[in-house]
Amino acid sequence: MPVEFTSDHEIFRDSVKKFIEKEIRPFAETWEIQGRTPRSLWKKCGEMGFLGISYPDSVGGMGADFLYNYIFAEEMAKCGSPGVATGFAVQTDMATPALAEHGNPLLIENFLKPAISGDMICSIAVTEPGCGSDVAGVQTRAVLDGNDYVINGQKTFITNGTQADFITLLARTNDKPGHHCFSLFVVPTKISGFSVGKVLRKISHLSSDTAEIVLQDVRVPKNHLIGQEGEGFIYQMEQFQFERLAGMANAIGMMKRGYELTKKYVSMRETFGKPLVERQVVQHKLADMYAEIILIETLALRCVELAQKKENFSKLVTVLKLKGAQAKIRVLEECVQLHGGYGLMHEYEVARLYRDSKLAGIGGGANEIMLEIIAKMEGLIPKKSSSSLNYAKQVEKSVVAN
Ligand SMILES: Cc1cc2nc3c(=O)[nH]c(=O)nc-3n(C[C@H](O)[C@H](O)[C@H](O)COP(=O)(O)OP(=O)(O)OC[C@H]3O[C@@H](n4cnc5c(N)ncnc54)[C@H](O)[C@@H]3O)c2cc1C
Fold this sequence. Notes:
Strand content: 5-15%
Largest sheet: 4 strands, antiparallel
Order of helices and strands: HHHHHHHEEEEEEEHEEHHHHH
Helix content: 40-55%
CATH topology of the largest domain: Butyryl-CoA Dehydrogenase, subunit A, domain 3
CATH architecture of the largest domain: Up-down Bundle
Strand order of the largest sheet: 2-3-7-6
Bound molecules: flavin-adenine dinucleotide
CATH superfamily of the largest domain: Butyryl-CoA Dehydrogenase, subunit A, domain 3
Shape: globular
Low-confidence stretches: 385-392, 394-402
Radius of gyration: 21 Å
């Protein structure tokens, strides 16, 4: 049975839209200028249940199916400032899934529940100055010393980095070859040895804060380890499909918003004595955008369907991530083109959507990494070549969080 949006899903969508119109859109411009989304919005989203949509009631979630999560991600992307949506996606789909699945009762009580209620903000910390796509190069190290792990290292490009109350951190716990040398930890940020380094200035996602993080002899109790030591990569693998799916729901939201704004604009804007929309070339451009959006949406909903059935959808979601990121750039560039010079003005939302479209092809696994995974899954990388095989395996591991 293909997934269907029921009337309950649509009621939920309306409640997200109303929330956005009241609590986000009027302030989006200010937050773009301030370079961050205020902490109070996390609390408001928590009170609405938006930060734990698919998490069980027992941890404060809504216990709803993944389609609700998808709707939230899509609608948030239309809020007037995609950076806001990114900050929340990190909280709901990147920094907490492994914690929810494998965290011990203490971590659930002290970190997951407050993240779902909006009392705490969190980040995922994987990328380092020396490695992004190649996560196997992570150098941050956690060493067991008595009842504590002592952590040293540096992370970069960390979303919510200046505001986070805790980070979910990937660190090396041994040097054995293979998958089992990394572990995931919950690291509170108000702790000796933890500091926020440079706050990074970006050209996109301006309402989302991004920072470097430094860990110098940070001690966390042993029970801040998520699940088993050495299984950090595996846990990330379990969640990366959902992370990419949520990211693409976000891309679909941005494309739909750009398309709607452009449809309105070309109906109103006249050149050479008639509205732009009366020209066939403009109608066809819009039809082409619509076709791209529907293609990506259909693929995304198929992934949701497989996810609901608990079937493996890693290949399909990799294709979705690649094609969705490419479509996003094409669609939003065309939106700007049809707005002419106004499309490059800050006060036009399409400018912001276009500017923020680039990240999808880099974060969450760059397009080239998606191609590498597809090539591997299609058997295009010769099996006899052990180095390429290892490389492909490494690539697959590497995109777990990035
Ligand atoms: C705004 C923003 C927010 C982010 N938020 C977070 C966060 O919250 N937490 C976190 O941990 N990280 C975060 N990141 C980091 C992000 O995941 C990485 O930037 C991404 O994984 C790419 O890593 P890199 O930048 O080191 O690029 P590199 O790995 O250095 O790669 C550079 C480019 O080379 C190409 N490339 C790489 N490998 C290959 C290959 N094997 N074959 C062919 N081409 C290749 C790709 O085009 C890639 O874009 C964020 C980044 C940005 C920009």
